[in-house]
Amino acid sequence: MIIELTFAQSVSGSLVSWYQALLILAPFVAWGWLVATKLEKDARFYHLKHERWNSIHLAAAFAALAVMLLVPWFLLGWPVGILLLLAPILVYWRVRNAAVPEAQRYHLSSDSFGNKLAARRQARAAKQALLQFVDSNGRTRSTPLKDEPLFPVHMLAEDVVGPALAARASRIEMEVGPSGTAVMQTIDGVRYKRAAVPTDISMRMIDYLKDIAGLDAADRRRRQAGAFVLKGPGGETQINIITNGSSTGQRVRIDFEREKRMHKPFDGIGLLAPQLEALRAFEQPHERHGVILIGAPTGHGLTTTAYSFLSRHDAYTSNVKTLEREVMVQLLGVDQTQWDPTNPDIDYATNLQSILRRDPDIVLTADVRDQDTARVITEPGMKGPLIYVQQPLPTIDDQIRDWFKKVGDGKNAIKALRAVVNQRLLRTLCPNCRQAYQPTPEQLKKLNLPPKKGGQLYRASGKVQVKNKIEDCPVCGGHGYLGQTGVFEVMIVDAEVRKHLGALDLKSARAHARRQNMIYLQEAALSKVITGETDIEEVVRATSAGRPAQAGAAPTASAGSPASGAAAKPPGGPAAVSKQPSPAGG
Known about the structure:
Number of helices: 20
CATH topology of the largest domain: Rossmann fold
Number of domains: 3
Helix content: 40-55%
CATH superfamily of the largest domain: P-loop containing nucleotide triphosphate hydrolases
Radius of gyration: 37 Å
Low-confidence stretches: 1-14, 547-586
Largest sheet: 8 strands, antiparallel
Structural class: alpha/beta
Oligomer: single chain
Shape: elongated
CATH class of the largest domain: Alpha Beta
């Protein structure tokens, strides 16, 4: 108040001109704001005798004002007054820095100012971006700034990955071509086509993701595999990426939470109770011998099922080993080996033979592609370990024929064969929006179901009613399906089946297995229609992958479901354009 009064009297007495008055007023306004809002609070917080510092600052202000007004030469008095105002502030700065921790000290440098400015710009860029990438070394990559060349590349990566995550996709596939990059995403085992991406920026985006995954971005021909973590609104997501060259450019596959999706307990993959009981016999130590063939068409969960069969054995009390062309999931306690096709000194059969010589109890091997590998598998016979063999084939008959062909000798092919398993994956109905209906006797007859077993069935909807308005189901995103389950056909190879197979009589072998209560694939699928897990349309779609097993009359779409072969509803979003989904690969 005293300062303001003195200043007003000086101005009213015409001691200074109007512009000189403004020059005097400006530094005092800035000084007052700094002392009152910053320095006093800071001194209170760090217990630096704020009353004494307030007095020092006030005394300096009186002195500065006096010098500015009383020195005859304004060009001398004004800068001297500014120095008097600043002197206590600079002294406080030095005293404060000596009393507080290093991290809390004030610093004045171009570097610190530039760092703060860069941090603010980075924060603004991060707000515009929804996703952050944690690279293969565990470092969170900074979001590119808006004026940087990588910013549109990052945003394109978000546009490709973000909607797929929101739609519950398990995989994205991209193939670069001269006219654009095709993008597909897989939801519940069905692939949907999305809008193509221009080639030039999609190549930059792929290089961007490869760099994050620790891959060589410059190598666009060799197959590479890596992983990183994605941070988004839904939390952290583990990403596996595989890239390799193609005739037109590059192919890229991005898997979301691959390890979690492929870790399925043996009793949770969809086997029916009688099938589980029949297969559990091979868990007993005295039964852990011979060969079990596990088959499925491409995209129907063969690898996941093989891992589930393997994981039912206790890896701490049993010697469990694998030889795989690609290790998809690390199994606790299992000795997993990935075959290196680039090593000219050891082929697949030799590598497998080396594993079998280490006296394992259980072995999982990839598909058999040559007679040498088949010979190595059959050689131990019923005295060797229990060996699971994966076969990407659509039916049990195809599996048996392929096995005989690879082994070459029918007697050796059947001597250790214990069981043959084939499967399909079915999408399960969304429990929030599935629609119930009562099938007619004619529909039940077409399904080979007696009327007493019909009851109420369900079909996919994808729609819910919200306040008299029909909307997409928020749980399944409008698809009508949520998740997948397996359906299986299991043939136990006993002495009678082995005799018929030795005579190459598959029909009689199947007939005997049927008399032993073997459940056909379509029967297993229809049992899940009856329990409301899935619907007829999905059974038609899934069993059309390859040739269906013999199961009497095949189910038809006329049983209260949409037309046979009708496409599933494509996922929402502007990029979803396909109306013809197909089984996913992998």
